[in-house]
Amino acid sequence: MTAPGRRSSTFTRLLRHGFTDPSGAERLLDGPELAPLRSDPVLLEALGGTADPDLALRGLARLLEAQPAPTARRELLDTLISAKPLRDRLLGVLGASAALGEHLARHPGDWQVLVTYEPRDLHPGVEEFERGLAEADDPVALRVAYRRCLLAIAARDVCGTIDVAQTAAELADLATATLRAALALARADAPDDAALCRLAVIAMGKCGGHELNYVSDVDVIFVAEATEGADEAKALRSATKLASHMMRICSETTIEGSIWPVDANLRPEGRNGPLVRTLSSHVAYYQRWAKTWEFQALLKARPVAGDLDLGEEYVAAVAPLVWQAAERENFVTDVQRMRRRVVENIPAAEVDRELKLGPGGLRDVEFAVQLLQLVHGRTDPGLRSGTTLDALQALAAGGYVGRTDAVQLDDAYRFLRSLEHRIQLYRLRRTHLVPEAEADQRRLGRSLGLRTDPVAELNREWRRHTGVVRRLHEKLFYRPLLDAVAQLAPGEARLRPEAARERLIALGYADPAAALRHLEALASGVTRKAAIQRTLLPVLLGWFADSADPDAGLLNFRKVSDALGKTPWYLRLLRDEGAAAQNLARVLSAGRLAPDLLMRAPEAVALLGDGDGGGLGPRPGAHLEQEILAAVGRAENGEQAVAAARGVRRRELFRTCAADIVGSYGTEAQPAVADQGALVDRVGGAVSDLTAATLAGTLRAVVRANWGDMLPTRFAVIGMGRFGGHELGYGSDADVVFVHEPRDGVGEQEASEAAHKVVSEMRRLLQIPSADPPLLIDADLRPEGKSGPLVRTLKSYEAYYRRWSLVWESQALLRAEPVAGDEDLARRFIALVDPLRYPSGGLAEDAVREIRRLKARMESERLPRGVDPKLHTKLGPGGLSDVEWTVQLLQLQHGAAVAGLRTTRTREALAAACAAGLLSEEDTATLDEAWVLATRVRNAVMLVRGRAGDTFPSDPRELAAVGRYLGYGPGHVGDMLDGYRRTTRLARAVVDEFFYGAAEK
Q1: Residues 869, 863: contact at Cβ < 8 Å?
Q2: Which of 960, 944, 957, 971 is nearest to 336 (CA)?
């Protein structure tokens, strides 16, 4: 007897052998069933070798207790002690699967299937499983026989007799035998129906691919033909009855549970289509209506039950269509959309535990392999395997995948499938989630041979393998292209140029020959530069392909690399700073404007990084002005000074474009910015601040070049329109008015000539042809418009506004804000115009009518001919003009009384009108959404086309690029246009009410 306070030697041994509940194990070993084995060291060692020794011991105790007679119990004990194969198999299963332990407790004689250990038992096929199911004459018996066969597979699996691929193949063969047995039961129940039709069962998915899980839906398609002399319609009804009955036999729950669901939703038209079709009906559907994913699913089609000759005819008929799928016009779009949909549908709380669908999971491997098969299997029949690992091996043998990559991917896939098998085997439940409980993870780790620290080792290996899959999934589809052109490693199999061309077409490259030339120029050779390019290009190619114009992205990358390839920091930046490479890929493939700006000074690539000197955040206006004024001060003359200012402007325009593109597209590390208004405000503020700083620098340069330190007259630049509202877009002119005031002792004539010369010289210098984009100054909003003088004194403005000012000029002054020059003069100008733009009594009714008349006239006269008005962002219904004029009317009417309305910014004024009760929250949100959307479209058009425009592009590729910028995936251009029309239609209804007077406010 063990002394009080001391643990027994058995307790200690149990702990050493991996038991987590040694006290409970001791109690079981003291029981009558296990007493003969209590001191058997071989048994304890065998239990310690299982995934869960406690679970195995409990299962063994239940099995012994369930034996029908003492002699049966004695037979099991004797065999267990003397026969190592049985001991390892039985205890291995009991330690890995609570569900199979329960099956053995219900059917205590089934342990006998684990006793035989002959060569023919090691790798059974369909025929052996059919013999194992042959005596089942009803659904319940079939379930018992199925579990008995499953027990033998699990035993071979957990003992390592077969590997994960062989296990999956045996499970698929068992499913084949089970489908045949279920169909036989259905036919026996309805012999008349069976006589009328030939019915073939086509396995799909993992069953068709000979790689089934322990618990999985078995995907099938049914095809039928009438027997000779039978009516086709009656035959199809009979076949449908047989198919439905067969599905119920497998799927329905009985006292012995269910086998697995039989899923026929991969059939033509899915669950909305007929369950059974004739062969000709199947072929007609696939020829006319099938989507890309349906051909991808057909990769794994395999006849398994019923009329196998008919099944082979089906496979032969659809196979040519499968291998033509990559030639479909929308192939890339469909595949990309399907991939995104899979990821998007994973619940956020489960993404990190998803073995199948999560990032780096099984689906990533299968998706990449199937995509390569669809592209290259057209011309290489050796790739046409339905089994993932076999197809991967064939891809490597053919040079479509690097051998090292294939080995790593094979290892990762085997580990993930093994983990999936062990998770499902425990309860025989369909799941792909890694459990969170430590006890479950401990059992899983031990079942995979991780014994030192099972939980930590399991998580480490799992994360390592998913990391490999994520990396290779990115690389797999693109890297072999480089092997076709790099002229390296002559002993290594490489992708043929023809195959590389096919793959580029499948990715969406419109000119694959040019793309191959670019790849050859970038990646050929043995230099360090070429080696780094070969590392970068696989991922970059994928990012380019994810854009609307991958050809432009690759061409632009080659141009930048040619310009900077010898610069030591360039490739190092892309290789070492995670954000830089993807940011560059997005910028180079999103349109023309950003690449054009970058090509003029490629060193601006440094802005795309996240280290010193990098960063895409907007710079404060004061900092920009300080930098430009410093550059102007270092220049030798006015032209050099303004050239320096324009160079800073070009660089900062690129920074703003890049930040906008990256924020709109998103990256792996940073998702797309959800707040579209924030993106608009950031662009408008950044471009407006940059324009103001450029004008300040140009003014300084002109004054210094012609008058030295002081101009004979005080001079100020007042921003107007979108410039004054901090809402400039990429293609906007700078709307301004100029004001001056002669200094003491300077005559009016001298001051006026000096002011006019300043304006003329500023406009000239900012438009001199150069590598930098021009800045156009538009002064048409000055008094008297184009007919009036370019610059006036403050007194002249005062006299004009007192006597001649029109209502449209008061409206234009709502946007007036100082941007450059003499600050005191600018403040006095603003003080002068405030009473005009915020009249104390609001607007008279005739002034309101005049504004409405002007707006209606503008809509009818200025809209270009041939343009769809509903898609014109500026003048169309619900567009920029509608929203801005509505807001400005409210400012003119209520600005004197409501301080928040005294702002030059449209969105701020909208918010103030809402806060003051002039607009409802709903109407405010409607107008704001329309204004933001129209502004985004204008910015997108400039980014994509490189020139300003107020309408959506007509070129399909450019239109798709605008859609990507706005957050619409490939193939959703129609949704984008519909969304724009819907948003602006709602805004126009609010404009009709508040601007055109349907309701008086």
Answers
A1: yes
A2: 971
